[in-house]
C-alpha cells in the first residue's frame, strides 16, 4: 500500500480531474438511489389509487433523475479516464527516464523481460486500478450505504434480511480480495518469465536456427507459458467464484423478502410497492458490494505492480553527477590511478590497480586474452560505471567532477557489438550529432570507409535499416557505428574491437583516415589482433585484469613475455592460413 501512496505524487497535475470525477459520481449515485423510491410512490399512491396525474408526475421525476444520472456517469467516466491515462503516462515516462540513468551495475538487477513487464503491464494495472477507484470505488460504497439507510427508513420490516446477508457478502469479499492479491503477484512473476524468455529467443533467433535448437527452445518457452497459464487459471477461478456466490446470497435475500413481504401484505402492514422497492435496493446493495470488491481486487492486483514500479524508481543510481559539475571543454589527457573494478560486491575484481597516463591526442592500444578486462577499462571513460576503488583524472581534474552530459558529448564510443536503430542511415549517424551538416556526415562516412557501400544502396543515406540492422553485413554495421562516433569530433575516441568484421586492408584504411582527420583526438583501440594496434603511441597489455606490459610495439616485443606470446601465436596462425 506504501507503493500506491508513493505513486500518488504523480496525481498532482490532475487534481481537478480527480476531484470532479467523484463529485459527478455522487450525482449519478443520488439519482440511482431515488429511482426505487419514486417507483414505490408511483405504485402505492398513484397506480393503486388510480391517480393518473400522480403517476405521470412520478414518471417525469424518474425521467429527470435518469437524465441527471446519465450526465453524472458520462462526466465521471470522462474525467476519470483523463486523469488515469495522464497519470499512467507520467509514471511510464518517469520509469523510462530512470532506466536511462542506470549503469551496468543497476541494470544487472533487472532482467529485460521484467523491465518490459513493469513498463507495460504493471503500469497498465495501476492505471486500471486508479480509474476504477475514481469511477466505481466512490459509487460502490455510496450505493451500499445509501440503500441500507433508505431500507432502514422505508422498509424496516424487511431490514432483518439485510442484517443476515450483508455480513455474509462482506466476509466473502474480504477473503476473495485478500487471496486474489497474492495470486496476481504470482501471475506478474510468471509474466516476467515469459517476457524474458521471449526477448532472449527473439534476440538469439539466428543462433537458435544455426544450432537447430528450435524444438528445445519451444519446450522451454512452453514451460514458462504453462506456468503462467496455470497461475492465471487459479487466479481467475477464485475471482470467478465470487459472482455466482454473491448472486446466490442475494437471491436468497429476494426469496426471503418475497416470503416475508407476502405475509406482511396479507396482514395489511406492508404495501406491494415497498417490497418491490426493497428488492431493487437489495440489487443496488449487491451492485455496490460487487463493484467495491472488484475495485479492491484490482487494487490488490495493482499493489504488487506498484511495488515493482517503486523498486525501479527508487533504485539508487551508482553513477551520480557531482554538485556544481563542470561543463568546461575537454582536451583528452587521461590519468588512471590505482583503478580497480568489480561487477558485484561479492565478486572478484575484473580490473586490479590499473595505473597509466595518456597525453591529449595520443593513440593507445589495448590487447590481451578474452576476459582480460579491456572492454571494462574503456567503459570507465564515459562513466558507464564507476571504479570500485582508485581515481580517474581527465585534463587534471577528477572525471567525476564533470557533468555527465559534457563528458559524454566529448567521447565517441563504439562497442564490440555495433548497435544501430531501425530507421534511415542518416538518422542513425545523427545520433552522434543531431545538428550535423551534410558535409560533416560525409566526412565521418569517408573516415569510416562507409561512403562506398552507402552510395550503392538504393536510397543512399535515406536507406531504411531494419530492427537490429539485419539488412546490413557485420562490417557495414561497424562502419556506420564508427561514423556515428566520429561525427562528434570527439576529444576522446573509443574503438572497442570496432573493426573486427573488416578485412585487413579496410581496417588499415580506417585507421589511417582517423589518424589523419582526427589528429587531436585521444584514441583508445581495443583489439584482439596486434596488427590493429602496432602503430599506436602506447600499447597496454592486460592479463586477468592487470596491466602486465606497457610501451610501444617494438619495446614490448623486446621485453614483455605476454606480448611476445600473443605475437608469436598470431604470426604462427598467419603462416598456417
Automatic annotation (TrEMBL):
This is ABC transporter ATP-binding protein. It comes from the Bacteria. It comes from Lysinibacillus pakistanensis. Pfam families: ABC_membrane, ABC_tran. The chain crosses the membrane at residues 12-34, 54-79, 136-153, 159-176, 238-262, 268-289. Keywords: ATP-binding, Cell membrane, Membrane, Nucleotide-binding, Transmembrane, Transmembrane helix, Transport. Residues 19-301 form the ABC transmembrane type-1 domain. One of its GO terms (cellular component) is plasma membrane. GO terms for molecular function: ABC-type oligopeptide transporter activity; ATP binding; ATP hydrolysis activity. It is found in: Cell membrane. Its main location: membrane. SUPFAM superfamilies: ABC transporter transmembrane region (SSF90123), P-loop containing nucleoside triphosphate hydrolases (SSF52540). It is a multi-pass membrane protein. Residues 334-569 form the ABC transporter domain.
